[in-house]
Write a structure and sequence with these properties.
heterodimer; A: 295 residues; alpha+beta; Alpha-Beta Plaits; four-stranded antiparallel beta sheet; B: 239 residues; 7 helices; globular; disordered C terminus
Chain lengths: 295, 239
């Protein structure tokens, strides 16, 4: 295989994509769709991961004081709370402050809640800062023993629930990767099979005149790789659109989560998609060529 | 050089194609291999190109042992051989020039070498003036000339022509055989498989006759007749 062959390989491989234009277009579209679905699930899983990590890193527990307690009684609990092991700091948050914070999160919609200010349904609370996050359960238990503490609320429960969701999303992602990956390999192998079938006479003549199987194989591998790469690029831009306008909108609407901005993982995502495209292209074409050349 | 030594070939379906063929073709020879259909001629041709391997015996082609050749060595054997088929086997959507040039590319030749060599061989077979044409625009004789140019272009030491005149009229067949004779005179070994006795008899060449998987006659300057399935060399009956 001489240095003069590179231009020939590229020309033959890319020319075949143009000759089988419709088939190539269909292959790129379907593979890009497969990559997009895999990518979307992976990004959802990634966001959940990031969220869980940030929740787990939080060393804060909120406690709510019984409604029957007066402001003075509520403030008097501070010393008792401070005496609990693993508590490094205690911050009182009045129900008025909580109400203001809540209105702030609602933004423009806050006006509709404004009427409730005089009949505030919230309770006075404390923000408890832990020394050691790993002693979370013990600290919650000790806080709940204090008379006047009606409820504790930490992000631990949310984090545990998210962990369960992540496991489901991961299971779905792996299944999709296997299933859609196999579909993509199948599609690429069929496009390459079509190209090889159209050029079977040429291939038999090449073999007859002493072309190595490697030489015969390369243009078809290039064709498969090019299809995979094109699908990867299409999937990347589609992913960008989906992430920004659909997934992020949905997630924010449901749970007010902060999504990781697309720019933060755009390059690694592009790299992963290109690797996936390369893998699918090489896999799909080599599988077919092996059978076709009987090598 | 081609050497078959007590070569047997039995196919998977039980057909015994060769039953102890011994044959030597020296470098620079011109040999006709003749015989009726099913005699084993095609098996010999396939064996020379390592498409089939002998069941037993030894087959040597240009220094390669066909019985023991590794899969990855086969392309290098085939680069020493040029094959011409009865049905030409040209690529319809490539021009005459491209049909010849692409086999040089297939063995990694440089564009410069291709530019120099292809017109030379097209001129040698007398088809240079039609190098831009597609195969479908040429006559049968012209297409076979292109096939010969393609077989020649990588400068093989052995040309195998399998029924090269099967699709040509007598005048074109004679012209083609004359061309192969000219190529032989330039130093290339030529093996022509045919069953056209009139054509064979017009050339004073070595004739190897195969029937039933064995060599039944091997005569230089000979001719043959299919009458009564007896084969002749220099007019004498051979058994």
């Amino acid at each position: 295989m001489g240095k003069y062959s590179i231009r020939y390989f590229l020309h033959e491989g890319l020319h075949s994509i143009v000759v089988h234009g419709f088939m190539s277009f269909a292959a790129v579209t379907v593979i890009a769709a497969c990559l997009l679905i895999i990518g979307t699930f992976s990004l959802v899983a990634y966001n959940i991961d990031v969220l869980i990590d940030s929740l787990e890193a939080q060393n804060e527990i909120a406690i709510y004081i019984d409604e029957s307690y007066t402001r003075e009684q509520a403030l008097a609990l501070e010393a008792q709370l401070r005496s609990i092991d693993n508590v490094s700091d205690v911050i009182f948050v009045s129900k008025e402050e909580l109400f203001d914070d809540y209105l702030e999160t609602l933004g423009e919609d806050a006006v509709i809640m404004e009427d409730l200010r005089d009949d505030n349904p919230l309770r006075d609370s404390y923000r408890i800062i832990m020394k050691d996050v790993s002693l979370h359960a013990e600290t919650v238990e000790a806080l709940e023993q204090v008379a006047g503490v009606a409820e504790t609320n930490s992000q631990k429960e949310l984090s545990d629930r998210l962990l369960q969701i992540r496991q489901v999303v991961n299971a779905v992602s792996y299944t999709l990767i296997a299933l859609l990956g196999a579909i993509s390999v199948f599609i690429i192998s069929n496009v390459v099979r079509l190209a090889m079938f159209a050029r079977r006479e040429e291939i038999s003549i090449m073999k007859m005149v002493g072309a190595t199987n490697g030489f015969i194989r390369v243009p078809f591998v290039i064709e498969g790789v090019a299809l995979g790469l094109m699908a990867a690029v299409v999937a990347f831009f589609a992913q960008w659109g989906v992430y920004r306008y659909i997934v992020s909108g949905l997630m924010q609407g449901i749970a007010m989560f902060d999504m990781v901005p697309f720019d933060a993982f755009a390059l690694p995502l592009l790299g992963a998609l290109i690797l996936a495209g390369l893998g699918l292209g090489v896999g799909g074409s080599v599988l077919t060529i092996r059978r076709f050349l009987k090598v | 050089m081609v050497k078959l030594l007590d070569t047997y070939k039995t196919y998977d379906n039980g057909t015994k194609a060769l039953k102890g063929v011994t044959l030597t073709i020296e470098d620079g020879e011109f040999v006709f291999i003749v015989g009726p259909s099913g005699s084993g001629k095609s098996t010999i041709i396939k064996m020379l190109a390592a498409e089939v391997r002998p069941t037993s015996g030894k087959v040597m082609v240009n220094g390669f042992n066909i019985g023991a050749i590794r899969q990855r060595e086969i392309p290098y054997l085939r680069r020493t051989i040029g094959v011409v088929f009865q049905d030409f086997r040209l690529i319809e959507n490539k021009s005459v020039h491209e049909n010849v040039a692409f086999v040089m590319r297939a063995v990694g030749a440089s564009p410069r070498a291709i530019k120099k060599r292809v017109p030379y061989v097209l001129d040698l077979v007398g088809i240079l003036h039609k190098s831009r044409r597609l195969p479908g625009e040429l006559s049968g004789g012209e297409q076979q000339r292109v096939a010969i140019a393609r077989a020649l272009v990588n400068n093989p030491s052995l040309i195998i022509a399998d029924e090269p005149t099967g699709n040509l009229d007598p005048a074109r067949s004679f012209e083609l055989m004359t061309l192969l004779e000219k190529i032989n005179m330039l130093g290339t070994t030529v093996v022509v498989v045919t069953h056209e006795k009139e054509l064979v008899n017009q050339f004073e060449k070595r004739v190897v006759t195969i029937d039933g998987g064995i060599v039944i006659s091997d005569k230089t300057g000979g001719y043959y007749s299919e009458r009564m399935n007896l084969y002749y060399g220099n007019g004498q009956i051979q058994h």
